[in-house]
Structure of site-specific DNA-methyltransferase (adenine-specific):
Amino acid sequence: MQKILKYTWRELRKTLSAEQTFYLVLAFIFWKYQAERKKGDNKRFNREAFEKAFAEYPKQVPEEAVRRLAEKIDWNSGQNNLDIKSSINRFGEWIESLFHNPVKLTPEYSDNKELYQEFGPALQRVLLLLNETVTLASEEGVYPATPASAQKLIAELFKEQPILKAADLCCGTGLPGLNILDAISGKWEEIEYYGADRDDIFCSIAKILLWETGIPKGKIECRNLLDPPEGPGEDFDFVFMDVPRGRNRGEFWERDDVRLERFNRKTVYSDWIFIKEALYQLNENGRAAVLVTPGALIRANEKRLREQIFLNDWLECVITLPAGLYPGTSTGTELMLFCKKKQPARQNKILLADISQYSIKRHNNISEITHEGIEAAVKCLREYREIPDICTILTKRNINLETYSFKPMQYIRYGSQRQGGETFALGDISEIIRGSQTLPKEISPEEGDALIINIRDIQDERVHYQTADKISCLHPACKEKFRIREDDILLTSKGAVIKSAIVETPPPEAFASGNITILRTNREKYDPYVLFEYLNSSQGMLELEKIQSGTTIRILNNTNLKSFQVPAYDKSLMEKIGSRLKRNRKTYFQKLKNLEEDYNKERNILNGLLKEEGEHETEE
């Protein structure tokens, strides 16, 4: 099935855009299934035939949705281009054979003869075709569908949960939500289904799909979920939401929005409006599955909202999924599971799990969750206890009260982590100074008396002053608090890769930019060179990565750094080792400098001999 559909897709893409191919293939599959159901003419595929196939069901089929999808298709190209017609005809012949070949029925069809007679195996094949079509469209950026492996994970986590009333918010085409509901219960005919999305064409597709699957209590509504609700919540048992990617930005929220009561910031990122919408729609016993990017778990702007969730005890579980699940981005994904009424043993607790290592790469460098990863997540939720390297339990005792972070990596104890022993918070042993934020994004070269240190000036654990921009010492960035000193540790505060350097000798007049954080260690409590070695160790780097925030741009903020834990050592031992580390480092770089000078000196001599030989031959 996949091979033939992909072949047809590639053939159509030679002439049509990805968007046109998506709409054309969807309409064709819908039309072919209608023709199969009513045993009508299924040979001529054009706009008239497509709309006519649904016209016989005026009380059931949303005519506006059919017309809306038809309007999105360039029918003239399909009729006038022989290659397109040929590809569509071959695809149609293959679908016909697919409809009529025997199929092993799934239990929900074989156990319900009436349902089988109405829809039969053809519906199963249609759904498979539609899912594959949506996957192809997702890979080309037309429709960012929820990854199939994420759908499987959610279904397994909610397996056999009684659901009478379900909502699929930001539903898109509706397929992911219906797939999840089908895998959870398999009893579509008993579920009252509601889908909502702001995109009218996807809502139209969802309406047609909903009718073709025969859900008797289904409804699709086209509305912007960021707008304040006009009435009370809908009292759903289950809510699924894949928060739209690429649209997350600060919104000036309306003060009468009941979902954001007691929120005290001017703006709120849209992902948290979506999260609060999901909670608003749940009944007092309801559960929700919400897919978000990592920023929602740690962003300082929404700390108050995370605190409310924690105090209300509505968050049951957070699972870190593998990165790269969605085409075109390596951004991570977090699955938040909410429950308005937890089991007594789970009250005032949040399970934090990390299955990011359970991934495999498919074509186009897209990741998917492995079967082992899904099993690991289900085990964590079922047992609801700490499992080293995979999950832990978050309570009032161990949550970071400064951030109310829900990021699993910040709390899970990994096997490589130093076990036992005392630790110090970085904020207790070091002054943490974020560099100056007053600089423009680009600095015009000027002959100033001072240097401004940026990310590019930190290489090989050293500060390279020769690459730094020069600025006037009168510039607002040249305040004494931003001036770097000997034995300061410099950390890059932005970027996926964390770089660091230690200032070895009294530096020139140099100041840290806003992309740099200065760690100025209190020598009475800790040695800067011992701290520098830990931060640059594999364990230290792992721990630093765990406290980074942000999705597109990774950030090390001062709040997280203050609570960052470092190993505690005997003070006298640290002094001895620290002085030796400093001396050893100085010796290493001096020898390296001498070797480089000797190398360049010898190189110049040899090149000079070659030049003399060339000049001698020219004279002859």
